[in-house]
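Record pair follows.
FIRST:
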Amino acid sequence: MLRDSRPCVWFYRVEVSYNLFGEYSVLREWGRTGKRGKALLVWFSNLRDACLAAERWRRRAGRRGYRALEG
């Protein structure tokens, strides 16, 4: 997702993944393009909770002006 803000462009990324320990993680990354951003990794014991959390964070980013990339 990107947020247009003059003179720079902001990004926000949410990713759900499965790790070697049988847990699911949600990675959130955000910041300005071309700069070092921030990242936060949260673990969940099941896929359902991880997906619900990822969707909640994605909706929240949308309310803050980020939009999904097309393509």
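SECOND:
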Amino acid sequence: MSESVRVVWDDALTAYDFGPGHPLAPVRVELTMALARELGVLDRTEVVGCTPATDDELALVHKRDYIEAVKRVSADGRPDLAAGLGTSDNPAFAGVHEASALIAGASLAAARSVWEGTAEHAVNVAGGLHHAMANTASGFCVYNDPAVAIAWLLAQGASKIAYVDVDVHHGDGVQALFYDDPRVLTISLHESPRTLFPGTGWPEETGADGSAVNVALPAGCGDEGWLRAFGAIVPPLLREFEPQILVTQHGCDSHALDPLAHLMLSLDGQRTAYEALHRLAHETSGGRWIATGGGGYELVQVVPRAWTHLIAEASGHPIAPSTPTGPAWQALVRERMGEAPPLTMTDGRTPQVSDLSGGYDPADAVDRAIMATRNAVFPSHGLDPLP
């Protein structure tokens, strides 16, 4: 199904490092790329480097004085709480501007590849820093690389871009930066703001005439409910919107093992979502697909396997769930992390995307969340909210 696929990578992307003990440990992307290499996934893609986003590129979404504040922190590592740097979530560190600009540059490289036609799909697993706002860092995110890529595409002449965010946390930064722009459809499926940071992402947050779509799922939601919500919301909206380019954020912190959230997806449920988004890219945006990483704090059991599946899916050569993770990678995990690695690429589940075609159960919390979203935005898109 895929024609040409680029993976944007530079070892320097691991410099985005808030220090020992911080949940967003760069080893997660190091182990992802090592696993993808071990399984031959990267052999089916073109791996390309990247350069840091320029100030002008960052200023497509960020305030100039904020960029200057990040640079000052970067020079000496001293906090700037007004810029959101120096908190427990976003510790200040020397070099933070350069590390953050490189991640934004990697997502820009992915966007350029797809826009210019040198690749049909492009992946930046180090990206997906979706909480950063125009003038402040937030939620482990300094520069909002998906938003920078989207704004760059709009500046090149793109008129309709869809952004689908499957991170367990609401994609609040991307939503805020394009909230009043009908050219950008943002769809976020996340744990309810009642129980999880950032406390936003209610169905009533609808943007410019339904351009912001929020599916707030109850804590404890697993594969079946999550994939039902996905199927009931995402495909009909993308088919109606017909974007020129699909941008997706693949935070894998929706997994049952993730220590920071309360959804209960399996690796297999996440892989099923990647398959569905790949198909939708070909169906609705002519195959033009930019995928990023995102959250994910189970550093060994979840993140490397999830994002290796993502790269493999984008390459058009998905990995069989029963595939062994490989002896060299297993040895690397023991050496780097001192823990037992997962032995195969599956959690042993076989979930499928569904929808509400079998009926709506008002006693089911997931179905109520689905209907709240459909009632809030479907009429704006000319869609019937009723199943």
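COMMENT: Residues 5-50+107-381 form a domain with the Arginase; Chain A fold (CATH 3.40.800.20).
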